């Protein structure tokens, strides 16, 4: 019998089993993503070919189409034009088209950034204040209020779509950045309060007391001492809020159209000639994945610590 | 530096009375210890002095100024917490500088004050370290340093040695006391450990159930406890209480206990009860060959320089301190009597000491 290994350690068989399960899961989840990324580098013809092409000649057509509006022109007109100035003009010309201007993608994408990060910041900020108050002060009906906050999560947010649509129209918040930020903040806030309260409870109150004795006001102590120590919780909460506001589709379709439309409702509507422009949609989706991926990777250490936080007392 | 006065201080949390109408004067430059079992109100008293709790009623004077209802930040007092409360996101230097940054000192002043405090506590070599990497004793020093840099009127310490291991605690006891003498600050120190209290304090206040039972020097607290609780709480082992089945009258100078005459210091007052207790420290009892209270040896604890004998008698178990070369065996029949007349009679109905020639 092998006694070199602690009986508490997993056996090599269970390690291999765990690794196998993780690899299978990874493959299953990565296939759609890799297919989307692959599609973004296909040409329009190769994207819709049957049987699907796994190996293909890469092309940036999807990305060019994503960022531009084009129109088809007769060959005589194209010949009369001066030679193309750069690679993407050349690519478009080879499809017998000319670029007529930039597409709406950059605008939609920046709307997503503004609304996504705005709502995340606001949810975490307000959530932290509320969580701190619930954690430290004697709030009348504390348990009922906490339950009330949680209860806003007990139905899918879209269930209240119609009242919100009417309210937003009356208030003039429809199709505005502010309206979307407020809406996503409201949806995220219950999660933020609950998550952050757990973290605030774990921070000994002596830290603020020490700061207050040293001459700081409670608010200063909150910003200088409590918030830095709640960073783990804030990061974990921010990731959840960010993922929701970034991915949200239903409200965005319903409430935004021109001014504040975010990327999710925009990307699937990119139309090419005679149907959906799949490479452009793939390109849009790929670019759409990047910010949330970076955000999660940057904060992943906090996320891991955040999920296991409080399991074992230090 | 400051004198702290507590007048009729009272604190209740709902129905629970944490501190009962307490009065205390802590003198300038005094090392004052609040001692008592957990839940006795000592920490609550300290937190009220600090401004972390507001009194239900009563006043706290700091150098004659009534500060009882001021915010903590307005009192110019430093507090050392049991868990140190060092900010884990700051390094040692920034932890020390934290109280100064609020007071709008120049960067140069902050640096020089931090360095001065660090040198005093011998932590100047770890100023750049993260607090999470420090050992218990160094954390303790950083916590003290953070209290020191501001040069406050008084230091309040809430069981600051409670989390250290035994060996280190003794060392820090000495260091703390020396530090106190060096900077000449008024220190109020809370602990439940009577040895810590005895070894450091100028004066000790023993508290129980929200009441201050006695505030005196360690010698008086040990030798002349005013109540049975204090007598039992202080000393290791605590005082013996031998029941006396007679009423004590003024000028009485001996009592009869299990048909043995025991000398007591002449009493100045009588007892109200006829069930009283003779309080006697283990070191004030001796083994005798005749005319003693009889009992059997129940246990022998060898403590190096001395032995503690537990003697089973019809009056209950009595502890005696004897020289370590005393040769007795378990179950052996022995007799014991008092060594001197440093005894205290506690009134059975009030548990309070009756005044006598010894217990003035």
Features:
heterodimer, A: 314 residues, mainly alpha, MetI-like fold, 2 domains, two-stranded antiparallel ribbon, two-stranded antiparallel sheet, 15 helices, 4 strands, 67% helix, 5% strand, B: 360 residues, alpha+beta, Rossmann fold, OB fold (Dihydrolipoamide Acetyltransferase, E2P), five-stranded antiparallel beta sheet, 23% helix
Structure summarized in a few sentences:
The complex is a heterodimer of chains A (314) and B (360). With 314 residues, chain A is mostly helical. Chain A is built from 15 helices and four strands.
Verbal overview:
The complex is a heterodimer of chains A (314) and B (360). Chain A is globular and about 80 Å long. Chain A has 314 residues and is mostly helical. In chain A, the strands form two sheets. Chain A has a two-stranded antiparallel ribbon. Chain A has a two-stranded antiparallel ribbon with strand order 3-4. Chain A has 15 helices and four strands. With 360 residues, chain B is an alpha+beta fold. Chain B has two domains: 4-228, Rossmann fold (3-Layer(aba) Sandwich), CATH 3.40.50; 237-346, OB fold (Dihydrolipoamide Acetyltransferase, E2P), CATH 2.40.50. Chain B has eight helices and 20 strands. Chain B is elongated and about 75 Å long. Classes of the chains: A mainly alpha (314), B alpha+beta (360). Chain A binds chain B through residues 204, 206-207, 209-217, 220, 224-225, 228-229, 231, and chain B through 50-52, 71-73, 75, 77-79, 81-83, 85, 87-89, 98-99, 102-103, 146, 150.
Distance N to C terminus of chain B: 33 Å
Question: What is the residue-mean pLDDT of chain A, rounded to a whole number?
Answer: 89
The tally of helices of chain B reads 8
pLDDT < 50 stretches of chain A: 310-314
The number of distinct structural domains of chain B comes to 2
Radius of gyration based on Cα positions of chain B: 24 Å
Specify the overall morphology of chain A.
Answer: globular
Q: Give the structural class of chain A.
A: mainly alpha
The CATH topology of the largest domain in chain B, please?
Answer: Rossmann fold
Q: SSE order of chain B in H/E notation?
A: EEEHEEEHHHEHEHEEHHEEEEEEEEEE
Secondary-structure-based class of chain B equals alpha+beta
Name of the CATH class of the largest domain in chain A: Mainly Alpha
Mean pLDDT over the residues of chain B: 90
Largest sheet of chain B: 6 strands, mixed
Strand order of the largest sheet of chain A: 1-2
């Amino acid at each position: 019998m092998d006694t070199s290994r602690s009986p508490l350690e997993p056996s090599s068989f269970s390690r291999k089993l765990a690794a196998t399960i993780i690899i299978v899961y990874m493959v299953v989840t990565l296939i759609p993503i890799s297919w989307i990324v692959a599609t973004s580098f296909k040409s329009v013809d190769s994207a819709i070919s049957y049987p699907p092409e796994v190996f293909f000649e890469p092309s940036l057509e999807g990305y060019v189409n994503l960022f531009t509006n084009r129109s088809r022109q007769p060959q005589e007109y194209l010949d009369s034009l001066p030679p193309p100035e750069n690679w993407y003009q050349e690519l478009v010309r080879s499809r017998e088209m000319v670029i007529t201007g930039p597409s709406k993608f950059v605008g939609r994408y920046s709307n997503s950034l503004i609304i996504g990060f705005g709502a995340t910041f606001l949810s975490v900020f307000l959530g932290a204040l509320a969580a701190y108050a619930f954690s430290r002060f004697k709030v009348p009906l504390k348990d009922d209020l906490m339950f009330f906050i949680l209860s806003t999560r007990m139905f899918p947010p879209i269930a209240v779509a119609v009242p919100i649509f009417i309210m937003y129209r009356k208030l003039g918040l429809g199709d505005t950045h502010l309206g979307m930020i407020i809406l996503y903040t409201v949806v995220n806030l219950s999660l933020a309060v609950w998550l952050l309260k757990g973290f605030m409870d774990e921070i000994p109150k002596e830290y603020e007391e020490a700061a207050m004795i040293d001459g700081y006001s409670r608010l200063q102590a909150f910003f200088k001492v409590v918030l830095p120590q709640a960073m783990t919780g804030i990061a974990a909460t921010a990731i959840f809020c960010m993922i929701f506001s970034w991915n949200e589709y239903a409200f965005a379709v319903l409430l935004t159209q021109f001014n504040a439309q975010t990327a999710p409702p925009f990307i699937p509507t990119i139309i090419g000639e005679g149907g959906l422009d799949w490479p452009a949609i793939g390109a849009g989706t790929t670019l759409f994945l990047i910010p949330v991926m970076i955000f999660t990777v940057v904060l992943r250490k906090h996320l891991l610590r955040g999920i296991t936080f409080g399991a074992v007392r230090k | 530096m400051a004198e702290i006065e507590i007048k009729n201080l009272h604190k209740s949390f709902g129905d629970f009375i944490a501190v009962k109408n307490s009065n205390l004067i802590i003198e300038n430059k005094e090392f004052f210890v609040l001692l008592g079992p957990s839940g006795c109100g000592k920490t609550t008293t300290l937190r009220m002095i600090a401004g972390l709790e507001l009194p239900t009623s009563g006043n706290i004077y700091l150098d004659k100024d009534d500060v009882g209802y001021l915010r903590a930040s307005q009192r110019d007092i430093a507090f050392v917490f049991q868990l140190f409360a060092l900010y884990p996101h700051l390094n040692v230097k920034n932890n020390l500088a934290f109280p100064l940054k609020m007071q709008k000192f120049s960067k140069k002043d902050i640096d020089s004050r931090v360095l001065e405090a660090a040198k005093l506590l011998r932590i100047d070599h770890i100023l750049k370290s993260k607090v999470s990497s420090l050992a218990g004793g160094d954390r303790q020093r950083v916590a003290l340093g953070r209290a020191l840099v501001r040069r406050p009127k008084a230091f309040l310490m809430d069981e600051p040695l409670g989390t250290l291991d035994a060996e280190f605690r003794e060392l820090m006891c000495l260091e703390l006391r020396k530090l106190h003498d060096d900077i000449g600050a008024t220190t109020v120190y809370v602990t439940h450990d009577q040895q810590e209290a005895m070894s450091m304090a100028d004066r000790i206040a023993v508290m129980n159930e929200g009441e201050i039972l006695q505030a005196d020097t360690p010698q008086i607290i040990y030798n002349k406890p005013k109540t049975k609780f204090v007598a039992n709480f202080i000393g290791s082992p605590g005082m013996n209480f031998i029941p006396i089945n007679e009423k004590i009258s003024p000028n009485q100078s001996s009592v009869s206990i299990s048909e043995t005459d025991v000398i007591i210091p002449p009493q100045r007052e009588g007892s109200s009860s006829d069930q009283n207790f003779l309080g006697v420290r283990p070191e004030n009892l001796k083994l005798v060959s005749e005319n003693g209270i009889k009992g059997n040896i129940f246990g022998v604890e060898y403590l190096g320089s001395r032995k503690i004998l537990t003697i089973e008698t019809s009056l209950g178990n009595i502890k005696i301190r004897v020289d370590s070369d005393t040769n007795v065996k378990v179950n052996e029949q022995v007799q014991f009597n008092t060594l001197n007349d440093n005894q205290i009679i506690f009134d059975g109905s009030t548990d309070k000491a009756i005044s006598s020639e010894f217990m003035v």
